Amino acid sequence: PTRDVDGITYKVVEMTFGENIGESSQDKYILYINPKTLRVDQFLYNATGFGITEPSIMKVTYEKIEGIYISTYRKYAPADWNGNKKKGPWTEQYTKNVTFNNSYNLESIKN
User: Fold this and answer.
1) Which of 43, 58, 70, 80 sits between 20 and 30 A of 93, alpha carbons compared?
2) Of 66, 72, 53, 44, nearest to 110 (Cα)?
3) CA–CA gap between residue 90 and residue 36 (Å, rounded)
4) pLDDT > 90 in the chain, percent
5) What is the DSSP letter of 50?
6) 28-36 long-range Cβ contacts below 8 angstroms, 24+ apart
7) What is the pLDDT of residue 105?
8) Strand ranges (DSSP E) for 1-111?
């Protein structure tokens, strides 16, 4: 299905894990895929392995670093499974000064 958020009609994909995967197979993700960029702009999730059974929403912003899109800004908060944020503040996380220190070379994978 699709969902409209802030003027964008997202393709929505629900994802779960099979039995015996990770701490718990009860985790659920609902991904909002941007039709222009084909990246996930936001998603709903729970993390039952950490005791989080109620959903949260996470919104992400990407930065292109050495030809790769990296999520460098994230904010998340409690929500419902329809994507509505519950009352309370967002928790924000920033990633800065990203470098690749593993001899990664984008040109080497293009050939």
Assistant:
1) 80
2) 66
3) 26
4) 62
5) G
6) 28/55, 30/81, 30/83, 32/3, 32/5, 32/83, 34/8, 34/10, 35/8, 35/9, 35/10, 35/11
7) 66
8) 2-5, 8-16, 28-33, 40-47, 52-65, 68-78, 91-94
Query: What's the CA gap between 11 and 96, in Å, rounded?
Result: 29
Is this structure's pTM higher than 0.85? no
Q: Which of 110, 34, 37, 111 is nearest to 69 (CA)?
A: 37
The token duo for 76 is: 């998340």
Radius of gyration of the chain (CA): 16
CB 15 within 8 A of CB 28: yes
Q: Which two tokens stand for residue 59?
A: 């919104």
Continuous segment of H or E residues that includes residue 107: helix 106-110
Alpha carbon 2 to its chain's center: 17
Structure tokens at 52: 């989080």
